[in-house]
Structure formats: C-alpha cells, structure tokens
Specification:
Layout: H1 2-13, H2 17-33, H3 37-64, H4 85-92, H5 95-98, E1 102-106, H6 113-126, E2 131-135, H7 136-148, H8 152-160, E3 164-170, H9 177-190, E4 195-200, H10 207-210, H11 215-225, E5 229-233, H12 239-256
Parallel strand pairs: 1-4, 1-5, 2-3, 3-4
The structure holds adenosine-5'-diphosphate and magnesium ion (MG).
Residues 113-114, 168-169, 199 line the site of magnesium ion.
C-alpha cells in the first residue's frame, strides 16, 4: 500500500496524470497476458503521449475560436464540381502554412466557403498549428477596441503568434476609412509571417469597394495577399438554399401522400 502511495506521489510530481490513472489497469492486463516489463512501460507511456496530444489539439481548436464545427470530411465535394477536391485536400496537408502563403476562397453566399475554411483550420490544429478565426468585421472591431486602449501593438503581436489566420466574409460589409486602414495594417503584419485563409464574395477587381473606395490601398494589399496565393473558386448554387428546397419538397411530398 505504501508503495502505491509513493508511486502516486511520484507520478504527480512528474505530471503524468494518464499514467497515474491507468497504471493499475495496464499492470493487471499485462500480468494476465504475462507481458514483459518493457511492454508494460511502453503501453503506459503511449497512453500518456496520446492523451497529451489529444489535449493539445483540443486546446488549439478552442483557441482558434471557430464559430461552428465543420470538417472537410463532411463536405460534399460532389455538390460543387468546379471546386478541385484534390487541391483542397492537398491544402489540408498544410504546406501552404509553412510557406506562409495564402488561400483565397471566392464564391457567392452559401456555397461552402466558411465550411472549407474551418475544415482547413481544424485540420491545421490537428497538425500542431496555432490557428485563429476572425470574421473581417470582428477583426476590424478588435483593432478599433485595441486602438481605444492603445494596445494595437499587443494585438498585432498576438496575431503574429499564429501560424494560420482565417478571415471570413471579407467584402460582405464595406469598411470605412479607419476600418480599411486597420485591415491594411493587418495584412501587412501577416505578409510572409503567417498563413492566411480569406473568404470573400467579391472578385479581386471589386476589392477597392471593400476598402473605402481606395484603389491604391486595395492594390497594395492585393499585391501582398496574392504574392504567394492559392485561389479556390467555389462556384455553384447555395447549399443552404438547395438543402432547404430539398427539405421543403420532401415535406410537401409527405403532406400530399
Ligand atoms: P458560405 O460561407 O459560402 O456562405 P457556408 O460554408 O456557411 O457557406 O455553407 C452554408 C451551410 O451549408 C453550412 O452549414 C455548410 O456546412 C453547408 N454546406 C455548404 N456547402 C456544403 C457542401 N458542399 N457539403 C456539405 N455542406 C455544405
Ligand atoms: Mg460564410
């Protein structure tokens, strides 16, 4: 008994909570199978490592602040035949993040841009990357608040600590002059420092209208953004709309039957 107390105390001191929780069960299994001491220790260490990895993935996913759970595995690529599935799955491997390159997902509302962006982001978390999700409006707000508190440097340091940043819904809301300048500052910070995924409903030619009509600012920003870029055009009908039409048809059919 005192042996167990000592073991418990050692495992706590070493911060090995999974080993602490599992050693008795694993010891019993190993004794039953007449397994070696080597195997016993290996299995126990393996459980500790697996648990830590799972926890750090969960922590990264939490820190990324995704608004909803979306996985690439649940994305129906057949619904958007023009989107190159292989390219998306290649991007999910994360080489673009190492290259500090950018991905632009372009398409009309409801075609699955946010879904793909979050799916890529979650995969990056699983591969050990630090990820942060913002809507364009949310990011501008973060800048405005940081400026009021004279903490822009702090915000930008925080931003730069990420490996991948997702900016969702760029172009949905036109920015005022101040917002445009904040976003410009953001893109300058990220240039060749962090990977970016941007989703937008507007083709590049129309980006000046997002940035308070400032062609020079939009041009300079696009110059940085598109220096190392993978562009994914998602064209198709709104998945949301299609799903609700299908549902309505089914419900209508049932009502008629
Ligand atoms: P967008 O960001 O382009 O407006 P979303 O990614 O928000 O579109 O997609 C709208 C909804 O439809 C979401 O719930 C999303 O999961 C779903 N969706 C869109 N396209 C697909 C698809 N090809 N397969 C599965 N679900 C999809
Ligand atoms: Mg969206």
């Amino acid at each position: 008994m005192s042996e167990h107390l000592l073991l418990t105390s050692y495992l706590k001191t070493l911060r090995l909570p999974t080993m602490l929780r599992e050693w008795a069960a694993v010891a019993r299994q190993c004794a039953e199978k007449d397994a070696s001491y080597d195997l016993f220790l290996q299995q126990l260490a393996e459980l500790e490592v697996q648990n830590r990895q799972a926890q750090s993935v969960a922590r990264r996913i939490k820190q990324a602040a995704f608004p909803v759970v979306k996985e690439l595995a649940d994305f129906d690529f057949a619904a958007v035949p023009k989107l190159n599935k292989k390219r998306v799955l290649d991007l999910a491997q994360g080489a673009f993040i190492e290259q500090r390159a950018n991905v632009v997902l372009n398409g009309a509302p409801g075609v699955g841009k946010t879904h793909v962006a979050i799916g890529l982001g979650r995969e990056a978390c699983r591969r050990g990357r630090k990820v942060r999700f913002f809507t364009a409006a949310g990011l501008v707000n973060a800048y405005v608040e940081a400026r009021e508190q004279r903490q822009i440097t702090r915000l930008e340091n925080h931003i730069r600590r990420n490996d991948l940043i997702i900016i969702d819904e760029l172009g949905y809301i036109p920015l005022d002059r101040v917002g445009a300048e904040h976003l410009f500052s953001f893109f300058s910070q990220c240039y060749e420092q962090t990977g970016l995924i941007v989703t937008t409903n507007l083709p590049f030619a129309e980006w000046p209208q997002i940035f308070a009509g400032d062609e020079r600012l939009a041009g300079a920003l696009l110059d940085r953004l598109t220096h190392h870029v993978y562009i994914l055009d998602i064209t198709g009908d709104s998945y949301r709309l299609k799903a609700s039409l299908k549902r309505r048809k089914r419900e209508g059919g049932e009502a008629a039957a």
